[in-house]
Amino acid sequence: MSDEKKMFKVTIDNITIEVEPGTSILNAARMIGGEVAPPAMCYYTKLKGSGGKCRTCLVEVAQGSTADPRPMPKLVASCRTNIMDGMVVKNITSEKVIDARKGVVEFLLINHPLDCPICDQAGECHLQDLSYEHGASGTRYQFPRRTFEKHDLGPYIQLHMTRCIMCFRCVYTADQVTNRRVHGILDRGEHAEIATYIKTALDNDFIGNVIDVCPVGALTDKTFRFKNRVWFLKPVDAHRDCPKCSGKVQLWYRGDEVFRVTARKDEFGEVEDWICNDCRFEKKKTADWVIEGPSKIDRHSVISANHYVGAHKPTEIEPEVMGRPPRLLMDIHSVSQVNQPSVDLSLLPGPAHSDDFNGKEK
Ligand code: SF4
Ligand code: FES
User: Fold this and answer.
1) Does residue 335 form part of some domain?
2) 331 occurs within a structural domain
């Protein structure tokens, strides 16, 4: 008998690939990549048992398998449904899926406070991306949103329960990555909340990873809170010889100051290597790290905004359009005294600040 493993054929959005038996639809779609990969708010490759909570990854199975070609009667969660040989799946090519996803986003936003302007997760929030890409422009919800009693989770982690979407990722992380879980989901349904049962700080060695897995701004880094916007920072890959973890991180710089340290993430926003609390919270000096170079950032990410390397400045076209030089050309720089032409904005490390124009040292 041949040792060769039988592979399963699957067609997703008209693209056919072969995958190993036991592969989920979501992971098969991720192999194709791009828009074919459904969004996932609760599934996390590294966390056993994750998925099946948020329903953002719903897809249509137009043909169950070659052996039984009947379609599946309802949309299925792609993170929890495995490929069968000859399966045909529709993601962005299915109107039903697009419509259902819009409905899921509406549900996820029912209790979400939409406080993006003051939320530290803004710019890297999966719910923000999901609602831009799949949501409706308005809400039909007219009732008060849920509120919770505040829980203090200690010096490192800030909990904003109103932003939580109950994805369970932080609970699985504490269970599987740290040596002691002291938080979980208390109560059920509308009253369910992330909390520690008796007032306890989350401070065991690897607990900072809950910040990276949280898809929204419910768990954020207290040491970075309100200090900067992510799109003003420059992420740089760095490592150190850490006795506890891989020591492979991203440092987030503005100028020469490290504002925060996070784990590195892959193209689906999932952590590549868990990092310990020491690396994340205690090592915020460049001297602590060996710098590898600028991190690769998806060009669609807001984090890649504001960097104008290689930009071509437009040429003045007024004389050409008017057929003569303009008689009066107001120089906005000399009038406003704000933007001085001598200051090259593209060379500033971050957004311009008034100190950049008045010659003051920052
Ligand atoms: S706090 Fe964040 S990671 Fe935890 S369940 Fe809520 S949304 Fe998910
Ligand atoms: S990612 Fe599949 S249900 Fe949440």
Assistant:
1) yes
2) yes
**Ligand number, closest to the Cα atom of 171:** 1
Q: Is 192 in the pocket of ligand 1 (CB under 6 A)?
A: no
Residue 16 CA to ligand 2 centre (angstroms):
23
Residue 308 has pLDDT above 60, yes or no: no
Confidence category of residue 326, pLDDT binned at 50, 70, 90: confident
Q: Is the CB of 37 under 6 A from ligand 2?
A: no
Question: How many structural domains is the chain composed of?
Answer: 1
How far apart are the CA of 212 and the centre of ligand 1, in A? 10
Query: Is the model's pLDDT at 66 over the cut of 70?
Result: yes
Question: Could you tell me if 61 and 41 are in contact, meaning their C-beta atoms sit under 8 angstroms apart?
Answer: no
Kindly give the distance from the C-alpha atom of residue 39 to the centroid of ligand 2, in angstroms, as a whole number: 8
Domain that includes residue 325, residue range: 318-349
Q: pLDDT, tens digit, for every residue of 40-58?
A: 999 999 999 999 999 999 9
Residue from 44, 47, 76, 79 to probe ligand 2 pocket by mutation (most atoms less than 8 Å from CB): 79
Q: Please give the structure tokens belonging to residue 290.
A: 């060996």
In the predicted model, what is the mean pLDDT of residues 232-248?
A: 94
Q: What is the number of other CB atoms lying within 10 angstroms of the CB of residue 67?
A: 8
**Whole-prediction pTM value?**
0.82
What is the distance between the alpha carbons of residues 94 and 90, in angstroms, rounded to a whole number?
A: 5
